[in-house]
Amino acid sequence: MKLYTKTICPKCLWVKSELQRARLEVDIINIDQDEQAKQRIMDAGFLSVPVLELEGRFIGDVKEVISQIEMISQ
Prior knowledge:
Elements: E1 2-5, H1 10-21, E2 27-30, H2 35-43, E3 51-54, E4 57-59, H3 62-72
Helix pairs in contact: 1-3
């Protein structure tokens, strides 16, 4: 599981806090510092973060990301 974020992003901070609360391990990738990762999510059709990559699927809707975190952590 990977979470694509930016340095200054309130929604990213929210998702990261939910991941920590759920005690889920995730690779956090800051697209401000990783041009290839930025291109990867752009190629997947996303123009904003956070984007969660889960089992090869990209999820960019924050509510859906939170929902996935809740389902996984049960």
